[in-house]
């Protein structure tokens, strides 16, 4: 049983708590200054608290607050060298956090799919931490990256779900406009993205080969693909990612990555 405390029960903190609860094997303490936030997540916790002192004995402490709140929490958070502090704050370097705590600091960029244990995450550390490895594996898939690539990961897998939701909505809405029932269109659009993503993860073929596999000469798919090929959609999607990456860099300010 792994003792884990999550500081901050907003969208991302709640997603982590819910995913860990569903995975099993975790004794979870949730901390927030908002009793309503704690009430909303209480079914997935062993304990909820508004007292920061209650998280100080956990083996693993996850700092899931907004970047501007990090210094305020760290000022009152007294951890020991044998503990691990995991920070998910965009633009806040490990060095900046480590300067305020005695614990080992690991930085991750998760996403909301932690709730369904299908998360994509990036992790940066000095030395691999087996407890953090276990947590990330229980919540989905993860990659290890150098910390100076965290801005890109923040844009790709951190912000990326919103970009995907946007595309799912666009496909759903057009299908409805073409006559499909809204609920049916939502299911088919979402499951299509899910199935395509699973195919990418399980296949050895590159993305061009997978596109070709769906496109029969003279068929429906190639007709639609020609519209995409003739558009600037690649640039638009890329620009959205770059904008998110730049914002992560702005949040970091003079902080060293």
Automatic annotation (TrEMBL):
Name of this protein: Pyrroline-5-carboxylate reductase
Domain of life: Archaea
Family label: Belongs to the pyrroline-5-carboxylate reductase family.
Catalysed transformations (reactions): L-proline + NAD(+) = (S)-1-pyrroline-5-carboxylate + NADH + 2 H(+); L-proline + NADP(+) = (S)-1-pyrroline-5-carboxylate + NADPH + 2 H(+)
InterPro entries xref list: 6-PGluconate_DH-like_C_sf, NAD(P)-bd_dom_sf, P5C_Rdtase_cat_N, P5CR_dimer, Pyrroline-COOH_reductase
Species in which this protein is naturally found: Halobellus ruber
Stretches assigned to the Pyrroline-5-carboxylate reductase catalytic N-terminal domain: 4-91
Record-level GO BP terms: L-proline biosynthetic process
Organism phylogeny: Archaea, Methanobacteriati, Methanobacteriota, Stenosarchaea group, Halobacteria
Protein's cellular compartments: Cytoplasm
Keywords: Amino-acid biosynthesis, Cytoplasm, NADP, Oxidoreductase, Proline biosynthesis
Chain sites annotated for binding NADP(+): 7-12, 64-67
Pathway in which the depicted protein is active: Amino-acid biosynthesis; L-proline biosynthesis; L-proline from L-glutamate 5-semialdehyde: step 1/1
Main localisation: cytoplasm
Example of a GO cellular component annotation carried by this entry: cytoplasm
């Amino acid at each position: 049983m792994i003792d884990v405390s999550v500081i901050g029960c907003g969208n991302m903190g709640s997603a982590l708590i819910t995913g860990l609860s569903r995975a099993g094997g975790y004794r979870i303490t949730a901390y927030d200054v908002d009793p309503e936030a704690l009430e909303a997540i209480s079914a997935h916790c062993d304990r909820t608290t508004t007292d920061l002192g209650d998280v100080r004995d956990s083996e693993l402490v996850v700092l899931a607050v907004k970047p501007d709140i990090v210094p305020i929490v760290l000022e009152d958070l007294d951890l020991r060298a044998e503990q691990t502090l995991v920070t998910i704050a965009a633009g806040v370097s490990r060095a900046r956090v480590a300067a305020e705590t005695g614990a080992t600091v690991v930085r991750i960029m998760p996403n909301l799919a932690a709730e369904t244990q299908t998360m994509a995450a990036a992790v940066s550390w000095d030395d691999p931490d087996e407890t953090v490895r276990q947590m990330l594996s229980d919540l989905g898939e993860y990659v290890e990256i150098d910390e100076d690539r965290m801005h890109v990961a923040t844009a790709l897998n951190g912000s990326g779900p919103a970009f995907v939701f946007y595309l799912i909505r666009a496909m759903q809405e057009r299908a409805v406009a073409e006559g499909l029932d809204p609920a049916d269109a939502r299911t088919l659009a979402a499951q299509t993205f899910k199935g395509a993503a699973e195919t990418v993860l399980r296949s050895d073929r590159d993305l061009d080969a997978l596109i070709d596999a769906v496109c029969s000469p003279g068929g429906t798919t190639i007709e639609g693909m020609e519209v995409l090929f003739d558009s600037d959609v690649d640039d638009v999607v890329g620009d959205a990612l770059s904008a998110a990456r730049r914002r992560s860099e702005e949040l970091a300010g003079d902080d060293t990555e």
